[in-house]
Design goal:
alpha+beta; Pnp Oxidase, Chain A; 9-stranded antiparallel beta sheet; globular
Length: 217
């Protein structure tokens, strides 16, 4: 195996910085601008966000999910309500999320609280999913032990036969989460590791008054 000097791996960022004089008063407009730039750059999974959750005992776990919708109230993702992440969110609604847009030398990190999306919201999104993904939502007992993949594939086959030529309803154990941020940090890589960090923060999720500050890199 070729020896790699990991300590020497580095990227000299030369991007333009964040102009504090043109910042919007709230973070959602800036996020929307950055997200559309990520779309235009055709980076892989621009809506992929790493979420960290914690159990009631403080044990932390993280994974990547897909953000499927956002507006000025927050961000939405969808999952099995019996999954490990859902279990932890039920016990502790605090969440940390990260959009790692490496090729743009950018990342957006936010912390906040979650609540379950409305049934109407979840059903609307579920109905828009490809049929195979709808079957998959029914077939997977997410986060439960699986002895053999063949068991999962058999469940998919059985459900595909059951719902052949039928509309597939949303499973009662599946739906969305609404993430409402209390703190949002925009990070832009700059030369000599003198990165730009702009943070929006508010006292509670009902407040429309955001504090804006620049942090040392």
């Amino acid at each position: 195996m070729t020896k790699i000097d990991i300590a020497a791996l580095r990227n000299n960022y030369s991007d333009a910085g964040i102009d504090a004089d043109t910042l919007p008063e709230e973070p959602f407009t800036m996020f929307s601008n950055w997200f559309h730039q990520a779309l235009e750059a055709e980076i892989a999974e621009p809506n992929g966000m790493v979420i960290a959750t914690a159990s009631d005992l403080g044990c932390i776990s993280q994974r990547t999910v897909l953000m499927k919708f956002f507006d000025h109230s927050g961000f939405f993702f969808y999952t099995n309500y019996g999954s490990r992440k859902a279990s932890q969110l039920n016990a502790n609604p605090a969440i940390s999320c990260l959009f790692p847009w490496y090729s743009l030398h950018r990342q957006v990190a936010f912390q906040g609280v979650v609540s379950k999306a409305t049934r109407e919201n979840s059903e609307q999104y579920f109905s828009s999913r490809p049929r195979g993904s709808q079957i998959g939502a029914w077939a997977s007992i997410q986060s439960a032990p699986l002895d053999h993949r063949e068991v999962l594939e058999q469940r998919v086959t059985q459900l595909s036969d059951e719902y052949r030529n039928k509309e597939i309803p949303k499973p009662p154990f599946w739906g969305g989460y609404h993430v409402q941020p209390l703190r949002v940090e925009f990070w832009q890589g700059r030369t000599s590791r003198l990165h730009d960090r702009i943070v929006y923060s508010r006292e509670n999720i009902d407040s429309e008054d955001w504090r804006i500050e620049r942090l040392y890199p």
